Amino acid sequence: MEVYKQEFKLLWRVVVVSVVVGILGLSFLGCTKKEPIRIGFVADLTGKQAELGVQERNGVQLALEKVNAAGGIKGRPIELIIRDDLGNPDGAKKADQELIDSGVVAIIGHATSGQTIAGLQVTNPAHILMLSPSSSTPDLSGTFEYFMRVYPNFADSAKGFAKHIYQNRKLTKLAILYDIDNAAYAPKYGSIFADKYRSLGGVLVGEIGFSATAKTDFNPILSELRANNAEGILIITSDVDAAMIVQRTRLIGWQVPLFASAWAQTATLIYSGGQNVEGMEIEEAYAFNSQSPDFLDFKRLYQDRFGQLPSFGATFGYETAMVLSSSLEKTNGDSLGLRQAILEKKDFKGLIDSFSFNEDGDVVRPFYLSVIRDNQFIIVEPLASTK
């Protein structure tokens, strides 16, 4: 009987030790498997103007994959949650609310100024920082506490473009076509450009807003501008619609010089416009001919992964994600104090150049004049800033 008691005690000790080891093992696994840090991305990803949003998403993905491959944020992986804003304000608000509900610590987006302002009505009250790779309207400067961007506001570039067209191109009568659907961007850009152009002595023979979603017939509009003796046309719209306007201009036999704001500067403009967009001039903040080793490596990586060269959206999307990741290191992956962490960091090392953020959440970057030649964008010269 005593033998059985000893065997029972021994068996009980084995059971207890096994349970304790099991609990410690589970605790160890729980400690080593850290919760991911969730970051949101939102832009227009499915509409006819989705090229910019898709490029930005691709750039963000490449950046976060690099961060995760290097160990994440203090051992915690980054989980990217993607939403489509459908290219309209209601879609932007809905997408941002879904991202907040999913527990993101910050949001990268939107691709256009109009959707950015709409989305900020949701994210700013929730104290969730939004960083945009491409929203550039001056209306966003210092307006929202929880907003920052890596693309500079276009106030100076629009003025510099007006000065170039009037003084360098010697065009004294110009027409402007702008997309009213992106209300925070196109009308504002047109207004700043027009004020500067007129101050130099230029005459605007037409300032016409149109809705890209309404399938506008451009033939009568262009015929009217031609009759008004416009010497050039500034087009402020997306890549797809800019290409359409150029095609219609050439189809009516009008070989007038054509210009576009940076919004149109994607490969889609060239693919859709073909030979008709040859010679078109564009202002932008993207030195795609940069010989920076980091940028050249990024271009190779992007082309290998996606089968095409990166646009400004992809490049600035990548930089936005890297800014956010490095700042999350300072906050231990928390949203609290994230904006201040970004402000305290000076000279972020971008793919092309270094940049810092001011209290308004803006950056200062150079602008360039480019022209389409032989189916590619060619940088002509820096575009002088002017007040």
Summarize the structure.
By secondary structure, this protein is α/β, with parallel strands linked by helices. It is built from twelve helices and 14 strands.
Q: What can you see in these coordinates?
A:
It is a single chain. The protein has 387 residues and is of the alpha/beta class. The protein has two domains: 37-152 and 290-356, Response regulator (Rossmann fold); 155-284 and 369-382, Rossmann fold. Helix content is 44%, strand content 18%. The protein has helices at 2-32, 51-69, 89-101, 113-123, 155-168, 186-199, 218-227, 239-251, 267-273, 293-306, 312-330, 338-344; strands spanning 37-43, 78-84, 106-108, 129-132, 147-149, 173-179, 203-210, 232-236, 258-260, 281-284, 348-349, 354-355, 368-373, 376-382. A seven-stranded mixed beta sheet has the order 7-6-8-9-10-13-14, sandwiched between helices. A five-stranded parallel beta sheet has the order 2-1-3-4-5, sandwiched between helices. It has a two-stranded antiparallel ribbon with strand order 11-12. Strand 11 (348-349) and strand 12 form a beta hairpin. It is globular, with a radius of gyration of 26 Å. Mean pLDDT is 90; it is low at 1-12 and 14-32.
In the predicted model, the low-confidence regions spanning at least 5 consecutive residues are: 1-12, 14-32
The name of the CATH superfamily of the largest domain reads: Response regulator
Q: Roughly how much helix do the residues carry, as a percent range?
A: 40-55%
Order of helices and strands: HEHEHEHEEHEHEHEHEHEHHHEEEE
> Using only CA atoms, what is the Rg?
26 Å
- Class of the largest domain in CATH? Alpha Beta
Residue-averaged pLDDT, rounded?
90
Strand order of the largest sheet: 7-6-8-9-10-13-14
Count of DSSP E strands?
14
Termini separation = 101 Å
CATH architectural label of the largest domain: 3-Layer(aba) Sandwich
Please, how many domains? Answer: 2
- The DSSP helix count reads 12
Going by helix content, strand content and strand pairing, the class is: alpha/beta
Q: Could you say what the CATH topology of the largest domain is called?
A: Rossmann fold
